[in-house]
From TrEMBL:
Biological processes per GO annotation: glutamate biosynthetic process
Organism this protein belongs to: Altererythrobacter lutimaris
UniProt-listed CDD domains: GltS_FMN (cd02808)
Domain named Glutamate synthase: residues: 134-459
Protein name: FMN-binding glutamate synthase family protein
């Protein structure tokens, strides 16, 4: 019996070796005779390993070779902070910072000799958006979930974000893919984004439908509407959702055909000027009764001066209730590399510029500023508040809270953590109940640690942070106060005493 088993295994081994050998011979012939790839033609079979190593290289760098602060778009130190915060773990570290404080633009907060005591500290108070809307929004959280659509994100991911946002008391932006049942499921505040294709609020011809707007606005959870003019990943190009991610449910929500690529226009076809934009904002606000604003990456900025001047000519009630400014240094969406790499100002430059232009025209109390773009740690969020942001949105920070490992597969249907895929097998790895807790922990820890920075600077809560509380390292190696580099055009603030 034993000899028969050994003989059978030997035959199986020979068969397997024969199949492998035959396969290698076939690959050798294919590689030697093809003419498209010089490496494979000159080095048959072995040349194919080049693609494998290229594919695996980013993973090896991430885990074995890259230093804590080296990787892009987010380094290990940033990701680890989010991971620990979302898991409710301590974010204290030992033996000093690994951050290099010498590069130009590095923010350094100026601590006060008499920091705020814990019993004197206060949470950032709710801030009202849309005083001229029939239903203003009293936004409770300074830190919120940025636009990520159902389609770009999976069903369990949206579910986790919805429940987590409700637990944390922050808002959830739908992204341009329309309002899904998963957005509403957790009971959180929802911001409905209207993209250039008008998904979720379009008629059969693709134009904006007032009836659909009223249907969306009828949900009490939908607090505001955001017109997306552009986003950080691809300024000047519309949303891109590959055909393999457009299933029947997503197509139904968006109002498009299933299994076909969802490509949005480069801009809103019905918005071609400042007057068109203000008219559209006013129309949506009138139809829905909710606050309305727009989202844009800042590149050319003369139009902002013209926009604020036009608002003052029409009257302050004509203004958008908020402006979301996105950094031009990439985002979660699928996008052409030339746009990700080269188009649009970074948030570091765009945010203070927008704030100053708004304030110059006397609209500080009328238009709220929401900052969005690679703000995933307390220092980055605190800088944005110092620069003048009223609220902070984060997208990729919440993807890390959901378990993202920066596999760079967001534009495909193969996300290994189930966040950006509609493959049921891969989605099973994401438990919405567990991840909702992590989302809430991330928000709460962010607010807590931004508060720690504020207290170190001697103020009671983060909303009291001003430009003089942070300095930026300059080319000569010295740091200078942000209010010196970007002098405020609003009413001068009292200078710091320390």
């Amino acid at each position: 019996m034993m000899f028969e088993l050994v003989d059978w295994l030997s035959r199986l081994f020979v068969l397997v070796i024969g199949i492998i050998a035959a396969g290698l011979v076939i690959l050798f012939i294919i590689d030697r005779t093809q003419t498209q790839d010089a490496v494979r033609r000159n080095y048959p079979v072995i040349g194919r390993l080049r693609y494998l190593f290229t594919e695996l290289g980013e993973f090896f760098r991430q885990y074995f070779f890259a230093m804590d602060r080296e990787e892009m778009p987010f380094n290990r130190a940033q990701r680890d902070w989010v991971y620990r915060a979302s898991k409710g773990q301590s974010n204290t570290v030992a033996f000093g910072s690994t951050r290099n404080l010498d590069p130009v633009g590095t923010p350094i907060f100026v601590n006060c000799p008499w920091p705020t005591l814990d019993d004197e500290a206060a949470a950032a108070l709710p801030l009202t958006i849309g005083h001229h809307a029939r239903e203003p929004f009293h936004a409770p959280s300074i830190f919120n979930i940025s636009a990520m659509s159902y389609g770009s994100l999976s069903k369990p991911a949206i579910r986790a974000l919805s429940h987590g946002a409700a637990k944390a008391g922050c808002w959830l932006n739908t992204g341009e893919g329309g309002l899904s049942p998963m957005h509403l499921e957790g009971g959180c505040d929802v911001i409905f984004q209207i993209g250039t294709a008008k998904y979720g609020v379009r008629d059969k011809a693709g134009s904006l439908s007032d009836d659909k707007l009223r249907e969306v606005a009828a949900h009490e959870q939908v607090r505001m509407f955001e017109l997306k003019l552009s986003q950080g990943a691809k300024p000047g190009k519309g949303g891109i959702l590959p055909a393999e991610k457009v299933n029947e449910e997503i197509a139904e929500i968006r109002g498009i055909e299933p299994h076909q690529a969802s490509i949005s226009p480069n801009r809103h076809p019905d918005i071609n000027s400042i007057d068109d934009l203000l008219d559209m904002v006013a129309h949506i606000r009138e139809v829905t009764g909710k606050p309305v604003g727009f989202k844009s990456v800042i590149g050319a900025y003369g139009w902002l001066d013209e926009l604020f001047a036009a608002i003052n000519n029409r009257g302050p009630e004509s203004a958008p209730d908020f402006i979301t400014v996105d950094g031009g240094d990439g985002g979660t969406g699928a996008a052409p590399m030339p746009l990700i790499d080269n188009v649009g100002l970074t948030l570091r430059e765009a945010l203070p510029m927008l704030v100053d232009l708004r304030d110059k025209h006397g609209l500080k109390d009328r238009i709220r500023i929401i900052a969005s773009g690679k703000l995933v740690t307390p220092g980055e969020v605190a800088w944005a508040i110092c620069a003048g942001a009223d609220f902070i949105n984060s997208a990729r920070g919440f993807m890390f809270a959901l378990g993202c490992i920066q596999a760079m597969r967001c534009n495909k249907n193969t996300c290994p953590t189930g966040i950006t895929t509609h493959d049921p097998r891969l989605q099973k790895g994401l438990d919405p109940r567990d991840k909702a807790v992590r989302v809430a922990n991330f928000v709460k820890d962010m607010r807590k640690e931004v508060g720690i920075i504020a207290h170190s600077c001697g103020v009671d809560n983060p909303r009291q942070l001003k430009r003089y509380h942070v300095r930026l390292v300059c080319a000569d190696g010295r740091s200078r106060p942000l209010d010196e580099l970007y002098p405020s055009v609003a009413t001068p603030e009292m200078a710091p005493t320390a």
